[in-house]
Amino acid sequence: MNDVIVVASGKGGTGKSTVCICLSVALIKQGKKVLLIDCDCGMRGLDIMLDMEQDLLFDASDAVCGNCTFQEAIYQSRNNQNLYLMAAPFDTENELSPSVFKQLVRAVKGSFDFVIIDSPAGIGSGFVTAAAPADSALIVTNAEPTSVRGGVKVRQKLEAMGIENIRLVINRFDRKVFRKLGFYRDLDEVIDATQTRLIALVPFDIRISVIMQRGAAGLDPDAINPVFDCLALRLEGERIPLLFKG
Q: What is the tens place of the pLDDT at every residue in 65-84?
């Protein structure tokens, strides 16, 4: 299959990295082998969320500079047998160019069913690098105007880069809060504003944030909301209803 998916957001704080990990755990539950690539150069966090911070000796920049082989920069998750991580460089001056990163992904993707790339927020140079090798994209937003506007900017940039398979994930959704704030009449208005087809509606769940910050992602796969199981199946082309459980 070798699908390469970039997960992006127009602004920080949408829970994009959490979506990357929860989706990856859902995919490996379905028997897939997944490589997560952190592209948030200088601000990487997937290693902490996966309790792999102490395991890493090399990152993506080491691989392309010849300090290690490409495979030596890929680390297996302690808690997830078929989940692997390639870390972003700690220093922003080591940020990879889009062409180099594209070559890197092309060299390693054959060993995996899915490559999921965690893009830095916004549409700067780091985003362009993260999106360069992608076959498809997930835009993560919250149901609030600034997040939605950022999502539109991301979509426009992705389309300009030639990526056409783009889907929307509305994350951290709380129906009561949504109605109380009154930014939008309903969810359809949010979806219309983003100009992107919805693939997942993820409920707000403080337990997920706690799991991630403790580095416990994957220790209890059943703790991951079933919405992500649904998202994983829909990404594989399964025609199943949109699930919202929260």
A: 999 999 999 999 987 889 99
